[in-house]
Amino acid sequence: MKEITIENAMKVDRPKMGGDIPVGLFRLVRLVAFEEILGEGAAGLAFQAGERLGKSLGIKDLKGLAKACEDLKIGDVKISERSDNKIHVDVYECVTCSGMEPVGRPICHFEGGLIAGAINTILNKKVKVKEVTCIGGLGDETCGFDIDVL
Prior knowledge:
Elements: H1 6-9, H2 23-38, H3 41-56, H4 62-71, E1 76-82, E2 86-92, H5 109-123, E3 127-133, H6 135-138, E4 143-149
Antiparallel strand pairs: 1-2, 2-4, 3-4
Helix pairs in contact: 2-3, 3-5
């Protein structure tokens, strides 16, 4: 059986329905169905999926990360802090949660994984990512991620 690649998955032929899906459908699968089936394990799975995607996109620099997130409609990414061992990334209009009522915990594990995978590839160093603010999870203005470069 062949592995489903990103390139193949991104090939869309839907003349009538088009290539976009409602954000609500993505959230139903990502937040409701996965959590119902996997419980707390859904967070780790979402992070790993995002990390794998982030590594495979071939992003060369932080501007490329912002552009990829915009192109994929993940969110509007801004890098607000950068040093040799720390980076802070804010995601405005986050696809996972922007507009939701706060649920009391950070929920943007997919985006955190994508950022981790991309920055790991850009710097060729291991990173540790922690979501410190969340629009739909905690009621913040952005989904903010602190990245420690190891």
